[in-house]
Amino acid sequence: MKIEVRVPTLSDSVASGALLPWRKQVGETVARDETLVDLETDKVILEIPSPASGTLVEVRQYEGAVVKADEVVAVIETGENATSSTPAEKPGPARTPDEARTTPSPSPQAGEPPVGDKGANVMPTPMASPPSPQPSPRAGEGANVMPTPIKREPMSRLRMRVAERLVAAQHTAAMLTTFNEVNMAAVNEMRQCFKAEFEVRHGVKLGYMSFFVRAVCRAMQQFPIVNAAIDGDDIVWHGDVDIGIAISSPRGLVVPILRRAQTLSPDAIEAAIADFASRAREARLTLEDLSGGTFSITNGGVFGSLLSTPILNPPQSAILGMHTIQERPVAENGQVVIRPMMYLALTYDHRLIDGRDAVQFLVAVKAALEAPETLMQEK
User: Of 8, 41, 231, 374, whose CB neighbour count within 10 A is largest?
Assistant: First the structure.
């Protein structure tokens, strides 16, 4: 019996995806739920599994094809008499999404039509013309120096989607950024004091992000407008603080959502972020992980950024930018002292959030970080 392999259901925010290299070739046997091919969407990479055990007898959509939910991409033959319609090919080594976009597919054998044009009348390719003579090198240059070739490759769907959202944010929101700086000495002291016990007790390292997430949640109790959003002519007041944590992955920037962050303990925050980072590296984040969010935090400091103006993630109305911690001279009680300082940047939609609220929100975050004792208390 022949069974069709279909694209799984996608989320409302994802309309289509591009097929990556097939893991199985026509003629090979497959087991039920074994992954046949990966589907790259503009958010995550999804696996398309085999709906039954049998033989892969037909591939209808090839690498690079853009497909939609419920579209048929292949056919499986079940039963003892399952045979392939074309000879099986030995599968090549697995490739990453970036390799799939930049590595050319194998050339067809002589006399065969290219993949995707089976049965088409393909005219033989004429012999290439001899190369044009290159200009003679100028005096002092090597005679055998060749120009460095230009490399061109298509953007990934994730990169295209990020580009679209960033441009949309610039065109639809009245973005403004306010800055402040925070003395991280107290946070550093707490981390040094508790990090060993914290890791033994909870099985996860105590980082900076749990302090910032809890400081943000506390500040939002005073300024809930920062957690709100514009929807047409309405203001949407969110009951929960669902914070998007920007994470760099091999495919680019992803922003998984830390849901109901106001209810989470420091260890729960650190464990969730560590899990996000691990799954982002392995391309195992789901659409659910990346959907929603009422506020975002991005940490350019891990790459050495001293100061930046983060861009909103629509429809959110604000985003907090963290930066590198740098020892600088500051004035305390009339004395110049050296302290570990971090610049903070809050970009906000001025259509919704007044400058006073934005500045006071950032000051509240600063105050919580400079007196972090209560931030470590578990819920």
Answer: 41
Backbone phi, psi, residue 163, to 5°: -60, -45
Per-10-residue mean pLDDT for the chain, 379 residues long?
88 78 91 90 82 92 88 87 46 41 42 41 42 53 77 80 81 94 96 93 94 97 97 96 92 90 96 94 88 94 93 94 96 95 98 97 98 81
Is residue 350 flagged as an active site residue?
A: yes
In tens, the pLDDT along 295-307 reads 999 999 999 999 9
Q: Which of 238, 267, 350, 357 is catalytic?
A: 350
Q: How many other CB atoms are there within 10 angstroms of residue 39's CB atom?
A: 23
* pTM summary value: 0.68
Catalytic, 38? Answer no
Burial class (CB in 10 A: 0-12, 13-18, 19+), 353: buried
Q: Which of 216, 194, 207 is nearest to 271 (CA)?
A: 207
- Dihedral sign for Cα 273, 277, 280, 284, please: negative
Strands (E), the chain: 2-6, 16-22, 29-30, 35-40, 45-49, 54-59, 66-68, 72-77, 175-183, 229-231, 234-236, 243-245, 247-249, 252-254, 257-258, 295-299, 318-322, 326-332, 335-349
Residue showing tokens 């944590």: 245
- Hey, what domains does the chain have and what are their CATH numbers? 2-99 (2.40.50.100), 157-376 (3.30.559.10)
- Tokens in use for 75? 């056919």
